[in-house]
Design brief:
alpha/beta, Four Helix Bundle (Hemerythrin (Met), subunit A), Heat Shock Protein 90, 5 domains, 6-stranded mixed beta sheet, 5-stranded mixed beta sheet, 24 helices, 19% strand, disordered N terminus
């Protein structure tokens, strides 16, 4: 529920067009799937009629003509004059797209232009459905300069897929972003929610008014206490003068003091009881008010996926497949900020399911499946988090093909690929630029889809995982916080300080005995369900006082976290339980605090830091690789560095990173590693290196940006840099060399001596 008094008539029409075109799209798809649905036809008639009336009010003649023609078609369908089929649905959806596009166009109210021509074409196509000749077109009007070519541009094919709510490619102009700036400040709240908020605000006011009589009673208690103090002072004075020898006088003074003390104690007891009751009511009221405010920010998932049935219909038809979309939990509440970010990743997952997963009907029937494939979108609240799964009953992911594709792209050597598990191979799907298709189409093949999914989930503090069964199904699971302003977190104690781990980023928590810990090559591990989990002290990762870590006699408390297939166990002092924490961003003047994402306050007012799990994994990786060592170990490494040349390897792929490290170490070089460009830049600023090997596509800071930073630093500009990338196009190579790299190699160079020969050409042998 929002105040619309400040909106113009055109802006109000845009708001109504957003709602009514969503109704039209959903109803057209419904009537196409279920023949002759009276409910769907009636809703379409009402939506078209409302749009026609609204367009007439603001003088949008082209929209009036199209909406009227669509209304006539719906009326005829309602009377049973014809049944809506796919060919009819194409025309009706084209009309719906037109109404949505013209509502967003800045020049929609200008006379003439391509909107009039497109309206005439759509009216003609719509009247053909009725079997009657087209009505006379709108009077031709002078065309503005520069729009004639657009007016003559052909309409897009019916099967073409456009982003939900976008203007068609042949529209007159893209909408100005400034026109919608004020809409971002509007939050729609249901009338029921607003009523509850008003009621809670009234309760809060009543409770606040009870403080005044409570304060008055405390003032009266203070007056009584003051009289008691005066009596005691008078008694002291008379004792000093020796005037209390009379026994009756002493008994009278004692009686007076006893009465006043009893009265003060009784009054204090009553006030404490009243205050305890008030505190309990206030806490309950604040909790309900806070919950209702959060609920007011929630919107049903259905609001963010209205275009998905249309997406599935159009893409499946263009691919010649039969697919239906099933949605469960569409009324599940999702935070407004998260819902706005969900459309792109979910759209990518559905497109992948349509193109990669669901088979053609004849193949499905041959495999004993129904000819119509199913994509299931399921949303629910689970354990204080939002869980969304996208499941298709298609052919699954071919792990063998995935492995060969990773080898073909140079992301891993055949020897390393053979040692990777299915779960580790599936992680390749989320790498930037990775695709299982070798041919780029309009739908897939560019390798950006799943990278977008993972980037979005991490941006909001969530996670994504994939599971597959060959020949049966593929399931993508998104684990997200229900709201971004409040998170459910595990509170832990680390050397006397509280830290919070978001539950969405915790794999599990363990309590392991010291006897369960085994040491291999100087590193500690604990085995759980056949998986070896590396252990590190949380205090050491966070650069705290390791000597203050208490020695556990019986068991260790371990928080298991992971990222991109790497799993680590952080040993903490103790678990303090779960909490709902209000997220408070850190002061921007602090910059990016390593390993910390934000902060919050506990019930007693003490601050607590919320950790950044992605940063923690990178820090642990760097710690285990020998870059963040204690002072004694660092001195030993520095002595070795003086004897051997030192190289920094920067790559976000653990397989590529390890392969490069092993190749260089086997040749005799001293090697450090960094997990992305920003981690690499921090390492370069904190150490001395003879050469840097870097990938291009990495999170936080890509390889080109890293090269530019190194070459812009007077103290480090002479460090040789070798870029090793899977991109082998000439423009990519020139881009890397222009940034300042000394060599540009493809990852196929690992299979021969090219990589090592290039290193030796630049800096010589390891011990020169």
């Amino acid at each position: 529920m929002e105040d619309l008094s400040g909106f113009s008539m055109l802006e109000l029409f845009r708001l109504e067009a957003d709602t009514q075109t969503a109704v039209l799209s959903a109803a057209v798809l419904a009537i196409e799937e279920v023949e002759h649905s009276p409910t769907a036809i009636e809703s379409m008639m009402r939506a078209a009629h409302s749009l026609k009336g609204a367009a007439r009010i603001i003088g949008l003649d082209s929209a009036v003509r199209v909406a009227h023609a669509m209304e006539e078609v719906f009326v005829a369908a309602g009377k049973g004059l014809f049944k809506v089929g796919p060919e009819h649905a194409d025309v009706l959806l084209a009309g719906t797209d037109f109404l949505g596009s013209i509502a967003r166009a800045d020049d929609a109210l200008h006379p003439g232009g391509p909107w009039t021509d497109r309206a005439n074409q759509l009216v003609s196509r719509l009247t053909v459905l009725l079997g009657t000749p087209s009505s006379s077109p709108l009077p031709s009007q002078p065309t503005r300069p520069g729009t004639e070519a657009q007016a003559q541009a052909p309409a897009p094919p019916h099967g073409a897929v456009q982003p939900h709510g976008a203007i068609a490619a042949d529209g007159p102009a893209a909408p100005a972003a400034a026109a919608f700036d004020q809409f971002d400040r509007v939050v729609r709240v249901s009338a029921d929610s607003l009523t509850r908020l008003v009621g809670l605000a009234g309760e809060s006011l009543v409770e606040a008014r009870q403080l005044r009589p409570f304060v008055d009673s405390l003032l009266a208690l203070r007056t009584t206490q003051a009289r008691l103090c005066d009596t005691i002072a008078a008694l002291d004075e008379r004792i000093d003068r020796g005037s209390l020898d009379d026994a009756a006088l002493r008994d009278g003074v004692r009686h007076i003091l006893r009465e006043q003390a009893t009265a003060v104690l009784a009054g204090l007891t009553r006030r404490c009881e009243e205050f305890e009751s008030f505190a309990s009511r206030t806490e309950d009221l604040s909790s309900r008010l806070h919950h209702e405010v959060l609920a007011s920010r929630m919107r049903p998932l259905a609001d963010g996926i209205r275009g998905f049935p249309r997406l599935v219909r159009d893409v499946s038809r263009s691919l010649g497949k039969q697919v239906r979309l099933e949605v469960r939990g569409e009324q599940t509440g999702v935070d407004r900020d998260i819902l706005e970010k969900l459309e792109a990743p979910l759209s990518h997952l559905i497109r992948n399911a349509l193109d990669h997963g669901i088979e053609q009907s004849d193949r499905r029937e041959a495999a004993g499946k129904p000819p119509v494939g199913t994509i299931l979108l399921d949303a629910r609240h689970r354990a204080g988090m939002l869980q969304i799964t996208v499941t298709d009953d298609g052919d699954g992911i071919d792990i063998g093909h995935l492995k060969s594709r990773a080898v073909t792209l140079g992301l891993v050597s055949p020897q390393v690929a053979d040692q990777l598990s299915a779960a580790e191979l599936l992680e390749f799907l989320f790498l930037p630029g990775f695709s299982t298709k070798s041919v780029v189409s309009e739908i897939s093949g560019r390798g950006v889809g799943l990278d977008v999914v993972q980037s979005m989930t991490k941006a909001v503090g969530g996670s994504v995982r994939v599971a597959t069964q060959t020949g049966r199904q593929t399931v993508f699971t998104l684990q997200l916080p229900i709201t971004m302003s409040v998170i459910r977190a595990l509170l832990v104690d680390i050397v006397g300080e509280p830290y919070a781990f978001p539950l969405t980023r915790i794999d599990q928590i363990l309590s392991c005995r010291r006897d369960d810990i085994r040491t291999v090559e100087g590193r500690q591990y604990v085995d759980r369900d056949g998986v070896a989990i590396g252990l590190v002290l949380a205090a050491q990762v966070l650069d705290l006082n390791v000597s203050a870590v208490p020695v556990a006699d019986d068991a260790l408390s371990v928080v298991v976290i992971s990222d991109r297939g790497k799993q680590f166990g952080m040993i903490v002092t103790a678990f303090l339980g779960e909490r709902d924490l209000e997220v408070r961003p850190l002061d921007p003047r602090l910059g990016k605090v390593p390993d910390i994402n934000s902060a919050s306050l506990l019930e007693n007012g003490d601050p607590v830091l919320i950790v950044d799990v992605d940063d923690l994994v990178r820090s642990i990786d760097g710690l285990l690789m020998g870059r963040r060592l204690t002072q004694v170990e660092f001195a030993r490494m520095a002595e070795q560095a003086r004897r051997r040349k030192r190289i920094l390897v920067v790559d976000d792929s653990i397989t590529v990173r390890e392969l490069e490290r092993q190749l260089l170490q086997s040749r005799g070089f001293d090697v450090d590693v960094a997990v992305d460009g920003m981690d690499g830049w921090n390492a370069i600023r904190g150490g001395q290196y003879d050469l840097v090997v870097s990938d291009v596509d990495m999170p936080r800071l890509d390889g080109i940006g890293l090269v530019s930073l190194i070459k812009a630093d007077p103290a480090r500009r002479d460090i040789p840099i070798v870029i090793v990338s899977y991109k082998d196009r000439e423009e990519d190579r020139l881009r890397g060399l222009e940034a300042g790299a000394n060599r540009y190699l493809t990852k196929t160079s690992f299979h021969d001596q090219t990589f090592l020969n290039t290193i030796i050409d630049l800096i010589g042998e390891p011990t020169d």
